[in-house]
């Protein structure tokens, strides 16, 4: 068994255009390429300890017809130190946000957990939710 990282889950996204997706994640969002297999159009990417894999659509993981937007019904929460640099990078690249940056409070028992969140869809429509911890308060 090959272990990619210490994480217990590492999403692998099937993408329609590997180079376009790689450019979005690396050049716009600032992910780092941990390793890649260009001949397989595959890369393991990381950002502040969060990892995900991208790979061109192929017959190996094919489970059904893909239609844009991919990943319907799922959003990937990616914890970051600050969403502001990401918002700036997306704005500079002219890349639209799915929703404006906003602060949300999620109840956990009698405490509210604060998250400043940025939502953006990748080139294939996967919904990415970048989340910055903004503290807690009483519910």
In terms of topology, how is this protein built?
Blueprint: E1 12-15, H1 18-28, E2 32-37, E3 42-47, E4 50-56, E5 75-79, H2 84-92, E6 99-108, E7 111-121, E8 127-138
Parallel strand pairs: 1-4, 5-8
Antiparallel strand pairs: 2-3, 3-4, 6-7, 7-8
Write a structural description.
It is built from two helices and eight strands, in the order βαββββαβββ. With about 140 residues, it is mainly beta. It has a single domain, classed as 2,3-Dihydroxybiphenyl 1,2-Dioxygenase, domain 1 (Roll). A four-stranded mixed β-sheet has the order 1-4-3-2, with helices on one face. A four-stranded mixed β-sheet has the order 5-8-7-6, with no helix packed on it. Strand 7 (about 110-120) and strand 8 form a beta hairpin. The protein is globular. The protein starts with 11 loop residues before the first strand and ends with a strand. Mean pLDDT is about 90; it is low at about 1-5.
CATH domain class: Alpha Beta
CATH H-tier superfamily: 2,3-Dihydroxybiphenyl 1,2-Dioxygenase, domain 1
Shape: globular
CATH architecture: Roll
Instruction: Please give the radius of gyration in angstroms.
Output: 16 Å
* Through-space gap between termini: 44 Å
As a percent range, the share of strand residues is 35-45%
Classify the secondary structure makeup into a structural class: mainly beta
Low-confidence stretches: 1-5
In the residues, how many domains can be counted?
1
Strand order of the largest sheet: 1-4-3-2
* CATH fold-type name: 2,3-Dihydroxybiphenyl 1,2-Dioxygenase, domain 1
Helix content: 10-25%
Order of helices and strands: EHEEEEHEEE
Number of strands: 8
Largest sheet report:
4 strands, mixed
């Amino acid at each position: 068994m090959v272990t990619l990282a210490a994480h217990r889950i590492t999403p692998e996204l099937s993408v329609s255009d590997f180079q376009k997706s790689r450019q979005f994640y690396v050049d716009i969002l600032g992910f780092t390429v941990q390793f890649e297999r260009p001949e397989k159009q595959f890369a393991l990417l990381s950002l502040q300890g969060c990892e995900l894999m991208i790979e061109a659509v192929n017959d190996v993981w094919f489970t059904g017809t893909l239609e844009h937007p991919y990943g319907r019904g799922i959003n990937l929460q990616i914890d970051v130190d600050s969403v502001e640099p990401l918002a700036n990078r997306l704005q500079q690249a002219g890349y639209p946000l799915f929703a404006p940056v906003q602060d949300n409070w999620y109840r956990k028992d009698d405490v509210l957990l604060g998250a400043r969140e940025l939502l953006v869809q990748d080139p294939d429509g996967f919904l990415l939710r970048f989340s910055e911890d903004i503290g807690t308060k009483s519910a």
